[in-house]
Amino acid sequence: MLTRRAILKTSLAFGALPGLLPGFLPRTLHAQGAAKTVHALAMHGDPKYGPDFTHFDYVNPDAPKGGAIKLAAFGTFDSFNPFILRGSPAPSSSIETLLASSDDEAFTEYGLLAESIDVPEDRSWVAFTLRPEARWHDDKPVTVDDVIFSLSILKEKGRPLYRIYYSSVKSAEQVGDRKVKFNFSGEVNRELPLIIGQLPILPKHYWESRDFEKPTLEPPLGSGLRILESFDAGRSVTLRRRPDYWGANLPVNVGQYNFDVIRYDYYRDITVAFEAFKGGGIDRWMENSSSRWSRNYDLPAVKDGRIIKINIPDNNPQGMQGYIFNTRRPMFSDRRVREAIGYAYDFEWTNKTLSDGQLVRTRSYFQGSELAANGIPTGEELAILEPFRGRVPEEVFTTEYQPPKTDGSGNIRSSLREAVKLLKAAGWEVRDGTLVEASTGKPLQFEILLDDPFAQRSTEPFIQNLGRMGIKASMRTVDSAQYQNRTDSFDFDMIIVRFGQTLSPGNEQREFWGSANADRPGSQNLIGIKDPVVDELIELVINADSRESLVARTRALDRVLQWGIYVVPQFHVPFYRVAYWNKFSFPPEPPKYGPGLDSWWLDPEKEAALRGKQGSG
User: Fold this and answer.
1) What pLDDT is attached to residue 23?
2) pTM of this prediction?
3) DSSP tag of 79
4) Domain residues for 499?
């Protein structure tokens, strides 16, 4: 699965076939196997919610609508078109998908634009029947032509990942007045019907007269709850609820998206943004700094209850966060060099000194879930890996991967000794205090590119430790637009990345690690991995036909990635840290796989009490 909720990521395009007469259902619809009509699709097993469900369990269906919330965004923006590489996009009028995910299931989707789904047992195709009431913001109906057009234009002119993610979709065709069918190719891929459900649907009549490939500050036409009310280019965006939104009473929407107005103010500096939150200029703050969470909330507003701090459990796989190597750079092509550099990152000292011990070291690409590879491989996982023996590091079979560990004192001489051994074996040596390639005398030096000034605090000691090894590392912090441009074109040596994962990994693994994407500008294979073994394991994950098989195959992939030493692992926090001005309410139990922020609402009594405290203070 690509995302927890249906947010724009990818698509596949194919030629639109001629429309058919209303009600005409060609024989091909059932030629590939008997289908059943369902209200929802689960990756494995059955959906939690039946066809007559009225709302998700983690929302308050009676939550009042109204009010406004002010949120922070970072960097800047120059476009409302998020589907292309060019420009820095901002939130805009809502674009909807065929299906919507629930946040209390591993991977299940329910009808949004689609009212029903036809799918055979082998999932070799899927068909969606659109809701007759679905409307664009100009009150024109959402049609099958819009669906097919969306796929076509995203592949032809959208971000490169769109033409990759749906590579196993063979064709699309209209098979009824409101029904569109997708045919799949290749091996069994149970995820494809759900992936198609995540496709962002765009209005054909709107985009046909516009240049899709250009950034634009014209608010695009959508079909969802929110429209763009106003904006100040590069500084703020205000979205407003549509009072006549066609899907307000759909079960997937009831109890959610309760604010009438959402305003995003853009900040280039996170410290300035935090000061704005403390002053009431921002209503809710998602904290990403452990030291700030423990040290910078000693405020009168926290002490008297005007600001509330909460930790919300995060039960999703944490993914991998770390300093990633751009293996396209010759200096990082040797695994031993990458491993040696990892010894210079002193997590234990960083956690104790800079984060008050709140962090947990990350070691797996699927950290915190049953998908993570632990111990040594056994059973089905071992059987999966055996054919690759000799093509992967021997440690894959003999040793559990663990990143280097220190005692937290800051004395890492033993770690540096291990690093020097690896570097010497790889053909490097220290001359006059500088690590050079023995055969050429070329020094080992690289730049760590950052887009968050706060990351400098943990990067500085990393660079100092690298210097003790004779490695000349530097760091440079750039604005979000420059950072995006440089990462899209792989113009960096090392950056900090978090590869988010879900409980149902699938086609997105091609985008993260697949050889076909290593040299494709804008892809998420930022590391530049080109490994046939990884490619084969990715396909095994995608084609898993049961939960048990998916777990074993994902563990095998995880283990090979771990021992590839593509990352200097950093850390994770197994909960969401949220601070907010005390004028909101929310259901008592958040969903299992998300913070549940979409189910919050403005509480009039709390708002009045907060106003009274601020007035008296």
Assistant:
1) 27
2) 0.77
3) B
4) 320-408+476-572
